[in-house]
Amino acid sequence: MARLRTIHPDNADGKTKRLFNTVQHKLGKVPNMLRIMGNSPAVLEGYLSFSAALNENSIGAELNELIALTVANENGSNYCHVAHFYQGEKIICLDIVTLEHAIHGESHDPKINTALKFALEVIASKGKVSDKMINEIKSAGYDDTQISEIVGTVALNIFTDYFNNVAQTDIDGPVLPIY
């Protein structure tokens, strides 16, 4: 059971209600994470805005989801693990093997593998990645824009992981084990 209040969309008011209506229109439902974020319209709006901006990035939806899975596993976020595994499989149409590798920060694709390794170093070093890692990710073919977007994706997912870990958000779908 969640440790923070989960607001039902019918009981929301003001800015939270407007934001919930937008989410409901786009997704067909308001996921539990957003229902809890709705306790603070500022948090909910900030998350939705940052997420929408990163959805328009140049690294693409596939790498976004793979990074999200890597970060969720690293942070022990059951909620985000389930959400991103589902999105990766059902929405982005990634195969199970690719998703399972990403959970561990790995990929058979050398370029993606480097991005996931970079994401893990961002977390482990609290952003103080080595020059060697910067050279490695640039050598893999990522430019400064894409590196910035990877860092943004890591940061957004750290936020949602920590938020859901604190809230103990009830999972919207079937529970999957953290590896």
Describe the overall structure:
- This protein is mainly α and 179 residues long.
- The chain folds into 2 domains: 46 residues, no CATH class; 108 residues, AhpD-like, CATH 1.20.1290.
- 67% of the residues lie in helices and 0% in strands.
- The chain is built from 9 helices and no strands.
- α3 runs antiparallel to α9, α4 crosses α9 and α7 runs antiparallel to α8.
- It is elongated.
- The two termini are 22 Å apart.
- The mean pLDDT is 95.
- InterPro entries: AhpD-like.
- This is Carboxymuconolactone decarboxylase family protein.
- It comes from Flavobacterium soyangense.
Order of helices and strands: HHHHHHHHH
**Rg measurement, Å:** 16 Å
CATH architecture of the largest domain: Up-down Bundle
Compute the separation of the termini in Å.
Answer: 22 Å
- What is the helical fraction, as a range of percent? 55-70%
What would you call the shape?
A: elongated
Query: What fraction of residues sit in β-strands?
Result: under 5%
The CATH homologous superfamily of the largest domain is termed: AhpD-like
Mean pLDDT rating: 95
Number of separate structural domains: 2
Quaternary state of the chains: single chain
Provide the CATH top-level class of the largest domain.
Mainly Alpha
Main pleated sheet: none
Q: Treating each run of at least 4 consecutive H or I residues as one helix, how many helices?
A: 9
CATH topological fold name of the largest domain: AhpD-like
Number of strands: 0
**SSE class:** mainly alpha
Uncertain spans, ≥5 residues at pLDDT below 50? none
